[in-house]
Amino acid sequence: MFRYYFPARVRSAVSDFAVVIALFSMTALSRFLPSSSNEGRASWLVNPLSASNPWWSPLSASLPALLGTMLVLMDQLLALVLIQEVPAVPNYSTSGCSCPSWYV
């Protein structure tokens, strides 16, 4: 439906940054909506070293952050290895079978 309104280049640029666009647009929208809390609008940024947090909260948050970083790194490296595994054959990940029958 949108191919009639936007060219392929615009649709590709929007789809590449769709998550970032959604985050920024919803954050901007939340600035204009009334807050339901009694103390006013809460901040989106939380200071991990504030006095209201226990001393162990930054330590406990570091393990999931480290595991998430490792997961993203391994995913990127695995994709790079799989794409570069077939040296003489062009990149078949764009469409169709990823490995031609004559290559096996």
Strand and helix map with partners:
Blueprint: H1 8-16, H2 18-32, H3 57-83
Biggest β-sheet strands, sense, barrel: none
Helix content: 40-55%
Q: How many β strands by DSSP?
A: 0
Oligomer: single chain
Provide a count of the helices.
Answer: 3
Q: Unreliable segments (pLDDT under 50, ≥5 consecutive)?
A: none
* Helical/strand content category: mainly alpha
Mean pLDDT: 76
Distance between the termini: 40 Å
Tell me what portion of residues adopts beta-strand conformation: under 5%
Radius of gyration: 23 Å
Order of helices and strands: HHH
Coarse morphology? flat
Can you characterise this structure?
The protein is an all-alpha fold. The protein has a domain at 1-32. Helix content is 49%, strand content 0%. The chain has 3 helices and no strands. It has helices spanning 8-16, 18-32, 57-83. The longest helix has 27 residues, at 57-83. The protein is flat and about 55 Å long. It starts with 7 loop residues before the first helix and ends in a 21-residue tail after the last helix. The mean pLDDT is 76.
